[in-house]
Design brief:
The protein has 264 residues and is of the alpha+beta class. The chain has a single domain, classed as 3-Layer(aba) Sandwich (Protein Transport Mog1p, Chain A). 22% of the residues lie in helices and 27% in strands. The N terminus is likely disordered.
Length: 264
C-alpha cells in the first residue's frame, strides 16, 4: 500500500472541466475537415493528456514505478496493490474517498485498436452474469456502465478502454466516480490522464496483461519480512508430537476422578 500526500492535482485538469484526450475519437478531424483546418490560422496549442507511452511521457510528474504502469502521485489518492510473494503485482487500485479506480494494461497489435473488441467481449461476459451494461460516450470514447451486486450491496462500475501504441489501458471506476465523473472522479481522473505505460519490446499476444511488479524498495522490504518470518518459524522448530511440551517432557497424566459412593 502506498499513500503519498505530495504532488498536484494533475497538470491538465481544472475543476469541473472535461476535455477530450489524445486518444479520444472526438479529437480526430474528419477527412473532409482537413483542408478547412489547414486553411485556418494555426490553432492555439493545447496541452496533451495521457495516458502516455513511456517514449513521450513528461518528465516533470512524480510516479510510482510498477513496471509496465507508472502511477502518478496525486494528492489525496492512495495506491493499493495486491502482490504475490515474489513481488509480482496482481491488482492495482487507486482510492480517493468513496471512489476506486482499478488499472490494468494489455498488449495490442502495432496497427490495430482493440478496445472495441474487448468492450464487446466484456459486455457479453457481463450479460452472461446477469448484468446489463449500457454503452455511453466518454472522455476517451465509448464506455460501458453497469451496476453489479456485491456482498456490500449494489456497486456502480464504469469501464474505459484507451488504445495506445501496442498497448491498451483498461480503467474501471467504482462508486461515485462511476456515476458522476464530472464532479466525483477528480484526482482519480488526474491519475489516469498522467498515467505512463511501458509496453516493453517483447512480443506478446493481443490482450495479454502487461507485467506489473513492486518498486524495488518495497520488494526488498517484503523479501526481508518474509525471510525474518521464516527464520522465526525455523527457530521455533517443528510442532511437538503427541501433545508433548516444547521441551520434550510429556504432559502429566490426569488422575481419574473418584467415583461417588452409593449411599445405602
Amino acid at each position: 500500500m502506498f499513500s503519498r500526500g505530495r504532488g498536484s492535482g494533475g497538470r491538465h485538469h481544472k475543476a469541473g472541466e472535461r476535455r477530450p484526450g489524445r486518444h479520444s475519437a472526438s479529437s480526430r478531424p474528419e477527412p473532409d475537415e482537413v483542408d478547412a483546418l489547414d486553411a485556418e490560422e494555426p490553432a492555439e496549442e493545447v496541452d496533451a493528456t495521457g495516458p502516455y507511452d513511456v517514449s513521450e511521457a513528461p518528465d516533470d510528474v512524480e510516479v510510482i514505478d510498477l513496471g509496465s504502469l507508472k502511477i502518478p502521485v496525486v494528492e489525496g489518492v492512495e495506491v493499493r496493490v495486491q502482490a504475490a510473494p515474489d513481488g509480482t503485482v496482481q491488482q492495482v487500485l487507486l482510492v480517493h474517498r468513496d471512489s476506486v479506480l482499478q488499472l490494468a494494461a494489455f498488449a495490442a497489435p502495432r496497427s490495430e485498436a482493440i478496445w472495441d473488441e474487448a468492450r464487446a467481449d466484456l459486455k457479453s461476459s457481463l450479460f452472461g452474469d446477469g448484468v446489463a451494461a449500457e454503452e455511453e460516450p466518454g472522455e476517451y470514447g465509448p464506455e460501458l456502465r453497469a451496476r453489479v451486486r456485491t456482498p456490500e450491496g449494489l456497486r456502480d462500475l464504469r469501464f474505459i478502454g484507451i488504445d495506445g501504441p501496442r498497448w491498451m489501458v483498461r480503467a474501471i471506476y467504482q462508486g461515485p466516480a462511476a456515476v458522476d465523473p464530472a464532479t466525483a472522479a477528480g484526482p482519480l481522473a488526474d491519475c489516469l490522464r498522467n498515467l505512463v505505460v511501458d509496453r516493453g519490446k517483447e512480443a506478446m499476444p493481443a490482450l495479454e496483461a502487461l507485467p506489473l511488479r513492486l518498486p524495488k524498495e518495497f520488494a526488498e522490504q517484503q523479501a526481508a519480512a518474509q525471510a525474518a518470518a521464516a527464520e522465526q518459524a525455523q527457530a521455533a522448530g517443528p510442532p511437538p508430537a503427541n501433545g508433548a511440551s516444547p521441551g520434550g517432557t510429556p504432559p502429566p497424566r490426569r488422575r481419574p476422578s473418584p467415583r461417588p459412593r452409593r449411599s445405602r
